[in-house]
Amino acid sequence: MRLISKFLMATAVVITGMSVASAQDAKPAMEISGNVAAPLQLTATDLQGMVRSSVSIPNRSGDGIRRYEGVALWRLLDSVGVSTEKLNAKDIAKRYLTVRGADGFEVVFSLAELGRAYAEDEVILADRMDGQPLPASRGSFQIIVPGDLRPTRNCYQVIALTVHETNKGQ
């Protein structure tokens, strides 16, 4: 009887653990909102199902190159109805994107920096580094800006992308 009781307890622990893991994966990991047609919440699984991009940038210590994989920000903006290719130059100039990390750190991009017609390098929301998931210290998502000379806008632990518009009505 005692053996059966221990077996049932162990089975319950395993099943509970599996339910928690599934719930964590389904939980929104980041949000795209603001001046968009359709706000969106994305999980890590959602991001992996999107069209992927990769960029390589020098390691901060200067002793090599890191390869990051993820989704280009322009693709994420397209998915919420903000197409940098469909907006005219005036509308592009009036809009910007803030990226917020879990620690409250925020960085800013003009939409022109993110559009394929305006920028040479793709800024990506990365979820992999050198073929592996990002280290826990960087969170599920990190912004990678390959054209910046210093990595000051490579925001870690990204939880929100927010589209803003300035000079409304002009």
From TrEMBL:
<dbReference type="Pfam" id="PF00174">
    <property type="entry name" value="Oxidored_molyb"/>
</dbReference>
<feature type="signal peptide">
    <location>
        <begin position="1"/>
        <end position="23"/>
    </location>
</feature>
<dbReference type="InterPro" id="IPR000572">
    <property type="entry name" value="OxRdtase_Mopterin-bd_dom"/>
</dbReference>
<protein>
    <submittedName>
        <fullName>Oxidoreductase molybdopterin binding domain-containing protein</fullName>
    </submittedName>
</protein>
<dbReference type="InterPro" id="IPR036374">
    <property type="entry name" value="OxRdtase_Mopterin-bd_sf"/>
</dbReference>
<keyword id="KW-0732">Signal</keyword>
<feature type="domain" description="Oxidoreductase molybdopterin-binding">
    <location>
        <begin position="30"/>
        <end position="147"/>
    </location>
</feature>
